[in-house]
Amino acid sequence: MISYSEALERILERASEHGPGRERVALDAASGRVLAVGLACPENVPPFENSAMDGFAVRSFETREASPERPVRLRVLGTVSAGDPPVSGGRVPASAWEIMTGAAMPLSPGSSDEPRGEPLTYDAVIKVEETRREGTELLIERPVRAGENVRGRGEDFRSGDPLLSAGGRIGPYQVLALASLGISELEVVRRPRVAVFSTGRELASPSRLKLAPGMIRNSTGPYLQAALPLFGAEVDYRGVIADDPERFFVELQALLSGPDRPELVLTTGAVSMGVHDFVPAVLERLGARIHFHKVAIRPGKPLLFAELPGGGPLFFGVPGNPVSSAVGLRFFVVPALRALQGEAPEKPTLARLEASSRKPDGLRCFYKARLAEAEGRLQVSALPGQASFKVSPLLRSNAWVVFEEPGAEVPGGSLVSVFPLGPEGIGILDNPETAFQAHDKGCCT
Ligand code: AMP
Ligand code: MG
Fold this sequence. Notes:
By secondary structure, the chain is α/β, with parallel strands linked by helices. It is built from six helices and 28 strands. The chain folds into four domains: 4-20 and 191-340, MoaB/Mog-like domain (Molybdenum Cofactor Biosythetic Enzyme, Chain A, 3-Layer(aba) Sandwich); 24-45 and 156-189, Molybdopterin biosynthesis moea protein, domain 2 (Alpha-Beta Complex); 50-151, Molybdopterin biosynthesis moeA protein, domain 3 (Beta Complex); 349-438, Beta Barrel (Beta-clip), CATH 2.40.340.10. The strands form eight sheets. A six-stranded mixed β-sheet has the order 7-4-6-5-9-8, with no helix packed on it. It has a six-stranded mixed β-sheet with strand order 16-13-17-21-20-18, sandwiched between helices. Strands 22-25-24-26-28 form a five-stranded mixed β-barrel. Helix 1 packs across helix 6 and helix 4 (245-257) crosses helix 5 (279-286). The structure holds adenosine monophosphate and magnesium ion.
């Protein structure tokens, strides 16, 4: 049985060879995608020097002597608003332009490229609230600093500077920057296609009104269809295989020879020691390369990782209990999806363990947890009800806590690794306490 670290290393190594290629997408479809090539700024933002305030563009040197007792008097030559083409400032001494936020600064006489410091350049803006008017004259009662309230050309983004690196995920702030720079299309990693099979003759559709005796609802099929897209995948849900190895063999063959070969195949159930746990045998018959079967973890120990033949998709067989499937997804499939997309491995957040927690010695445990902030420090507790069939504690959890292999108890106050439930990072307010109480007999963690 291999350790989680060894398992992860193998997964990352294999996934990096199976990247799904790239595609161009429009900016409005880019959120959530991973950038395939790095980008540099194609232009300056702001594109021209402009005013940060509603006020008056002045020549700072002309205000040097201004004071409330001896205000400087300037003649207002006109008004410029956002959207106006830049006006030529003229050569009139002791003058100012009324200027609105976002309007281009009046240009120096001659050309727009005349260097700053040229005495006739309007180089500062004073806020309207700080001025007085007397007829056509503007009164200024303090020196205005050169550059005051002026947004420089390229002050936010400078043309040619590095902007975003390959492997970074595009979110709303990236869209804001890209739109500011006029980038309307970009090269992203194609979404990895994930084919999902559920196994188990006991599985009834969640929409079935009444369960026949011995049947349970298929909960992880809908769960995986909901969760995988959050981590960048395109899901192809292939339905339930009712513990029929022959059918699984045929369906896998069809999938591999079909037009939409996935990058990853995920099955739930049928990887343990039961008489119906047929997944390993079918994979062997198919000629798959099995990298590992069983990892020293809880829950989800019988997890299997393979590569299907023909330079094939990655294959994950996760055990059928819902929380084993969730841990398989979060700690095995998600790292693979990130690597397939060229994203760096995720780093845990550290938090203090609130109370001592028992665990099986020698296994790395991924436990349903609740993270809270107390006096500026993150505190985490493993929730009651860690058995792998128990879904209800997930409704009160807002994180996964990870306990490393050695020891049968993790002392309260230890620093432990915490992972967010989803891809959005640690959010301690995302999942409020609900009415659910764990009915925990204290058995089978
Ligand atoms: P298995 O890994 O196939 O031995 O299944 C382990 C446990 O998970 C059994 O109690 C199954 O009934 C249950 N199980 C398997 N698949 C699902 C599923 N899709 N949804 C909910 N429970 C499942
Ligand atoms: Mg089964």
